[in-house]
Write a structure and sequence with these properties.
393 residues; alpha/beta; Aspartate Aminotransferase, domain 2; 2 domains; seven-stranded mixed sheet; 13 helices; 41% helix; binds pyridoxal-5'-phosphate
């Protein structure tokens, strides 16, 4: 059975060009880039090239790029660094819909040393800008707001938010793990101090992340020990993955406009057809500015997990809630923050596309999903009640 992979916000296929790029670094160019000898030195040069390519995907300069192990490490490092360099300030501003990489750390900080304000969102998933402005105080050390939401794809106005923080002398970090490679980002055009992203979301392998730190930003490392990354992140560089991320970023930079248009068209067709064929379905965050590849659709009176299991029988991979939280039957914190009613939030499915999806993938979902939902609803007492209620009106 062919796999129809529509779970690209969880992770992506490594591009064949990217695999090819990394292979020599296991058996030919395996030297340590910090070594004095020429053998290691040639790897150091390749690392520098990769750093340039990675910087280019967000319009940064290479000295502003720190390689980490993942998006989570980058997020943790940014937040803890901002708190370390401003010991006199103990307030953090974030949002209610952040990925656990930010959310859980902020909850931990709130238990101990900090006051944390989690700004809310409206029913469409948009950040409450009035609440955000009101939350910034003389005691605020840093703001951490995601660029694009992993569950709904809703894009926050982080550049505007960063400007407001800058005016008050507050450090601003954005978790751009879902945004980089999907929408154009140019760090020359904003005042964001720190930005995180992760290789495995843009067709590079798992286990490589990036923390962008704007030149001149005060910084305190999280991993200490070695002098690597100019003393900003200790640990021997993961050279195969760094080089492969360079290639993935190069591909993303070249193809972003054309590919986002194509992916958006596929996503829009999927969404249109599902909504027209399946009653009591709606898109969460559908009216907000969104990533081109993501749609989060609620089907009233069914369980998201049951939908996933039945789609899986046809090889269709999607997700309910974020990849890290699926497995628990709690409705997603993102949908709860948006005020999505429980009957809808429980039946939500996220489809997230990539450059490798084709029309045929969408055709299969459009064909298989309506009978799946109908079958599940036939088993739901709530749906039977709803139907009889509507017929008696
Ligand atoms: N931030 C967001 C928005 C994400 O979607 C993810 C992963 O799903 C992460 C952070 C964590 O990234 P990583 O898996 O590289 O640690």
């Amino acid at each position: 059975m062919k796999t129809v992979y529509l779970d690209n916000n969880a992770t992506t296929q490594v591009a064949p060009e990217v695999v090819e790029e990394m292979l020599p670094y296991f058996h030919e160019l395996y030297g340590n880039p910090s070594s004095m000898h020429t053998f290691g030195g040639q790897v150091a040069k390749k690392l520098a090239d990769a750093r340039e390519k990675v910087a280019a995907v967000i319009g940064a300069t290479s000295d502003e790029i720190i390689f980490t192990s993942c998006g989570t490490e980058s997020d943790n490092t940014a937040i803890l660094s901002a708190l370390a360099v401003t010991p006199e300030k103990r307030h953090v501003v974030t949002s209610r819909v952040e990925h656990p990489a930010v959310k859980v750390l902020c909850e931990r900080l709130a238990e101990k040393e900090c006051r944390v304000t989690a700004v809310g969102v409206d029913a469409g998933g948009n950040l409450d800008m009035n609440q955000y402005k009101a939350s910034l105080s003389p005691d605020t050390a840093m703001v951490s707001l995601m660029w694009a939401n992993n569950e709904t794809g809703v894009i926050f106005p982080v550049e505007e938010a960063a400007l407001l923080a800058r005016e008050k002398g507050i450090l601003f970090h954005t978790d751009a793990v879902q945004a980089v490679g999907k929408i154009p980002i140019d760090m020359k055009k904003n005042t964001i101090d720190m930005l995180s992203f992760s290789g495995h979301k843009l067709h590079a392998p798992k286990g490589i992340g990036v923390l962008y730190v704007r030149r001149g930003t005060r910084f305190s490392p999280y991993l200490i020990g070695g002098h690597q990354e100019k003393g900003r992140r200790g640990g021997t560089e993961n050279t195969p993955s760094i080089v492969s991320l360079g290639k993935a970023c190069e591909l993303a930079t070249q193809n972003i406009e054309q590919e986002s248009r194509r992916v958006r068209n596929l996503r829009d067709r999927l969404e249109r057809e599902i909504l027209s064929r399946i009653p009591n379905s709606s898109v969460n965050g559908g009216k907000a500015p969104r990533l081109p590849n993501t749609t989060n659709i609620s089907f009233e009176f069914v369980e998201g997990e049951s939908i996933l299991l039945l789609m899986d029988e046809y090889g269709i991979c999607a997700s309910s809630g974020s990849a890290c939280t699926s497995g628990s039957l709690q409705p997603s914190h993102v949908l709860r923050a948006m005020g999505v009613p429980y009957t809808m939030a429980h039946g939500s499915v996220r489809f997230s596309l990539s450059i490798y999806n084709k029309d045929a993938d969408i055709d299969l979902v459009i064909d298989k999903l309506p009978p799946i939902i109908a079958r599940l609803r036939e088993m739901s007492p709530y749906w039977t009640d709803e139907k009889s209620c509507r017929t008696s009106l």
